[in-house]
Amino acid sequence: MTILLCNGPVIPTLVTAPADQPVTLDEAKAHLGVDFADDDGLIDAFIQAATAYLDGYRGVLGRCIMFQTWQIAAPDAGTVILPFPDIIAARQDGTNLTVTETGLGPVVTIAAAGNVTFDCQMPQSQLITVKAIVFMLVSHWYNNRAAGQATQARLPMAAECLIASLRWQRL
C-alpha cells in the first residue's frame, strides 16, 4: 500500500472559500468599544487579515476554521494523507470516501489517481478560541496602527499561546 503525503509536490487547492468570518464586524466593534461607523472598513480589514493569518493551508494554524472545500491531485492509487484535520467529508469523482484518523493525520484510500475533494471545518468547541485570537489580533492592530517600537510589532503573548494550542503540524 502506497502512502501519499500531501505536502511537497501535492499542494491543496481551495475550491470553495468560507462564506463567513469567525468574527463579525459588530462583535469586533463591541470588543473594541467602538460605537461609530467611521472605522468599519478598517476593522473589517483587520478581521479579514487576522482570519487569513490563521486559516487554511498557508495559515499559522495549519487548519480550516470555517466550512470550506479543498482539493488535492493524488498522483497514484493508495492511502492519501489529507493536509488538514477536521475533515467532514471526502470524495473522489463523486464517490464518498471513508476518512480515517491516524497518527499521521486523516487519511483516505483511493483506487486510482485523481482529484480528492474534501470539506473541513474546525469543531465548534475550538471556534471560541479562534474568536478570542481574532479579537486579540484586531484589537492589537487597531490600537497600534503606526510604525512604532518592536514590542508593538509582536503579537500579544496571549494570542501566541492560544495559536500554539490550536496549531496543527503537518508532516
Automatic annotation (TrEMBL):
Coiled-coil intervals: none
CDD domains found in the cross-reference section: gp6
Signal peptide: none
The organism's place on the tree of life at top rank: Bacteria
Stored Pfam families: Phage_connect_1
InterPro entries: Phage_gp6-like_head-tail, Phage_HK97_gp6-like
NCBIfam families per UniProt: put_DNA_pack (TIGR01560)
Protein name in UniProt: Phage gp6-like head-tail connector protein
Source organism (scientific name): Martelella alba
Lineage start: Bacteria, Pseudomonadati, Pseudomonadota, Alphaproteobacteria, Hyphomicrobiales
